[in-house]
Amino acid sequence: MRNYRRRFTSTYESVGTARREIVAFAAANGFAGTALDDIESAVGEALANAAEHGHRAGGEITVNAKISERAFVVEIEDRGPGFARWNASGSERPGPTAARGFGIFLMRELMDEVDYSSNGACVRLVKRLGGSPSR
Questions:
Q1: What's the CATH fold of domain 2-128?
Q2: 20: which residues sit within 8 A by CB, 6+ positions away?
Q3: pTM of the model as a whole
């Protein structure tokens, strides 16, 4: 199993850097094509949420990723207050007038698993492949 761990300042400027590093880590370990595109989009949404909501309380985003032969797993945690669990539990598409909720919807559409802990301040994203990552 291969691991990646890094802390970033909780700023929007860090989101792009963190996203590129995580995608490069996944690509270097055999993930490509649509699976890699899905990882990039979902991780970008999770990092943007962490920067938006976590910057108020500690200014740090922690990223832990691991890759096995069957899955990419990344946890993105901020030091923000989190949110009510019900806000993240649904998988329905937000309505056309909804001001928020598209990021969580997109993450759920793109990844195989999306789970929250620490009152929503930590998101765990899982992308499985039909077999081991291609090389």
A1: Heat Shock Protein 90 (3.30.565)
A2: none
A3: 0.83
